[in-house]
Design a protein that fits this description.
Elements (H helix, E strand, L loop, with lengths): L28 H18 L3 E5 L4 H10 L9 E4 L16 H14 L3 H6 L4 E6 L4 H17 L3 H7 E8 L24 E7 L1 H10 L24 H18 L1 H12 L7 H11 L1
Parallel strand pairs: 1-2, 1-3, 3-4, 4-5
Helix pairs in contact: 1-9, 2-8, 9-10
């Protein structure tokens, strides 16, 4: 299986003339403010971890931060892990057929987000996604566990290097607030994994999770064996999504926006962490 194809926004020669006739409206100020604030909180909660954005919902964060980190030294490494699997059946991920399962595990190795790479990585890896009931995150972690089992990787070393940053719709905080991680039996697999939540406006999460056009097709088990390349024709909505991704990258790359992101990170309580302070300093340069 080839790695799921996604155009590199940083290497514009890949795009050719695809967007030449496409209108490129700027993101609305409110959307950009919401995205920046949530991105700052993700970085604060992840502390010194690299980031793996799971699936298509958080791809805006990947494109925006890819731009912001493009000209600074030693930024957190960013992964966009194509993965769509909220429900794996009553038997879970172990019921997935061997061929697509092996293909997906090879993809994780190529992406550098496999169990072995996590266990020996210099930094922890924060899994970032919008979490409703936790199904997608459960299936991804269980696939990592199965991969570690098959490859003879020490699972304790993996789960100690993991962090989870869940994007959640902002609500009024109270003792009765429903917290997804308090209702997940599968978390017994990752007893040492740090789990944090980032609250964001419902308008942002509802849009990026449900309504926004996406650059790639959903990467579910039925497509894990299918090789992809740039020759596949783009749908109008993919072209719209690609144009938006380019805008987010370019905005993130600009010095004024890096300064605004740095200021937003600096407002977070985690600024006592020296690695986060260092990141803020580098973004301001």
């Amino acid at each position: 299986m080839a790695k799921p194809f996604r155009w590199s926004i940083a290497r514009r020669e890949q795009l050719g003339q695809m967007l030449a006739d496409t209108e490129m409206p700027l993101p609305a100020p409110q959307f950009l403010n919401d995205l920046r604030t949530a991105a700052a909180r993700i970085l604060a909660m992840a502390e010194n971890a690299d980031l793996a954005f799971i699936g298509r919902t958080p791809e805006n964060f990947y494109d925006y931060l890819s731009g912001a980190f493009s000209s600074i030294d030693e930024p957190p490494e960013l992964h966009l892990v194509q993965f769509s699997l909220r429900w794996a059946g009553d038997s879970g991920v172990r019921s997935i057929k061997p061929e697509p399962l092996s293909s997906f595990m090879r993809y994780l190795k190529e992406e550098g987000a496999d169990a072995d790479s996590i266990s020996v990585g210099a930094r922890s890896l924060a899994l970032v996604d919008f979490v409703a009931q936790g199904g997608t995150m459960q299936n991804f972690v269980e696939l990592l566990h199965l991969q570690a089992e098959r490859d003879g990787v020490d699972w304790n070393a993996v789960q100690r290097k993991l962090r989870i940053v869940g994007l959640r719709a902002r609500t009024h905080n109270s003792p009765n607030t429903w917290r997804w991680q308090q209702h997940q039996d599968w978390l017994a697999l990752i007893p040492d994994t740090v789990i944090k939540n980032v609250s964001a406006p419902t308008r942002l999460l509802d849009y990026i999770a449900n309504d926004q056009p996406k650059v790639t097709h959903a990467f579910h088990p039925g497509r894990w064996e299918a090789p992809e390349d740039a020759a596949q024709p783009l749908t109008p909505r993919q072209i719209e999504a690609l144009a938006f991704a380019v805008q987010l990258y370019d905005i993130g790359q600009s010095k004024p926006e890096r300064t605004r992101l740095a200021a937003e990170i600096a407002r977070q309580p985690q600024m006592r962490n020296p690695t986060l302070r260092s990141l803020v300093s580098r973004l301001k340069v």
